[in-house]
């Protein structure tokens, strides 16, 4: 066993501490050089990056200003559009005088440049330009730029509409944000770009109800004239702020492109950025010097520290190599270690004989099914300890998966000795296993034996022979062992080797009785 561990521990050559320290100094010098060059490169690109970041911040600020203005239009509409009186005098019965009064209110109080009232059957009933209101009945299709707005707003209305006695109502606006019941954005009206807000006419106190069907819609617009441009730029106060209806193919610097509901460009806001243009070199040069000195000082400490860490790293590496060759549950060698030892042992034949024992637990599945997988793990660990104790230092016990174990047994491979060993292993496996909850369980053990060089010298062949012997033990009723030479599979191998014309009879095949 110890011979196996010494030979297959995969220990890597150790690096001298002095060599590692010199390497640390070289890496520190390289780090200083790379850091200096990197900071110089940072100085070259930092100005551009700073400008781009500033532009992005300015564009984000302006988007927020525009969004606030759009929400403001909707809030100003609510006083007219969300009213039981408006439902009665506009939706239930259209009153031109009330429509003029409502439009005058929005113009006088909020200076809405354009107001349009659209019925549920998609007709424009009233529209205004500043303080003039025109009562008219015309199809909405004559204003195609508004069709998409009406379609989307109707969909939102249907989602918020609720059935009430006598008709329909609308969810309370206190529970909704503007985006869920209103439409905002940009549109070209009367050939002019405008910022708009639109919402359905709905009751506020639910003293009246809405009829079935699409809603009546109130749309307000502010033309993007000089007055609105000044209003939008009041908070950010950008330099050279302008609105251009012609959109260039390529734009540089800060801008805000606006489009209608069909993603057709309407125009672009542009301005000069207030990005910091001062050179950052006065900052970069001192940083380079400070970091160079700091890294040079730390190099000595790093090298010393690395020397101390070498020992612990080597121990960690040995632990990792151990884990790579061992099963984490049982602590036994895994399939990789088994294959390595088997290959090495086969190369030493016929001088050093050995046997391969293929072991498999009987009735292990019932343990998992009855007591759970935690109990199964306990059984695996317990059986692993018993197999290891039974084999002792004369062999290597490995867990190759599930409830399968493989043993490479050396030194004494006579049949009588192997029979005694298998009897011991089977008896120990049959002993009860105590579980964590105070219960006990028991399993059996079936073993298949292949001897080298009697049964073969090829590693894969020996594993196959031991597996065939194990299968034979299972067929005999389990809880026993079988030599490969005593299995029907061995007869097939013997016949293939001797040929059909062989005069000598096959060896006497006997069942193992364990």
| Strand arrangement across the biggest beta sheet | 3-2-1-8-7-6
Contiguous low-pLDDT stretches (5 residues minimum) are 1-5, 7-15, 498-514
In total, the number of strands is 18
Largest sheet, described in full? 6 strands, antiparallel
Strand content: 15-25%
Report on the architecture of this protein.
By secondary structure, the protein is of the alpha+beta class. It is 48% helix and 21% strand. The protein has two domains: 54-272; 335-498, Reverse transcriptase/Diguanylate cyclase domain (Alpha-Beta Plaits). It has helices at residues 2-7, 17-81, 84-92, 96-110, 147-160, 178-181, 226-232, 281-324, 335-347, 364-371, 373-391, 415-430, 459-475, 488-498; strands at residues 114-118, 123-129, 132-139, 161-164, 167-170, 183-189, 192-200, 217-223, 239-244, 255-259, 265-272, 354-362, 395-401, 404-410, 433-434, 440-441, 444-452, 481-483. The strands form five sheets. The chain has a six-stranded antiparallel β-sheet, with helices on both faces. The chain has a five-stranded mixed β-sheet with strand order 13-14-12-17-18, sandwiched between helices. Strands 9-11-10 form a three-stranded antiparallel β-sheet, with helices on one face. A hairpin with a 2-residue loop joins strand 6 (183-189) and strand 7. The model is unreliable at 1-5, 7-15 and 498-514 (pLDDT under 50).
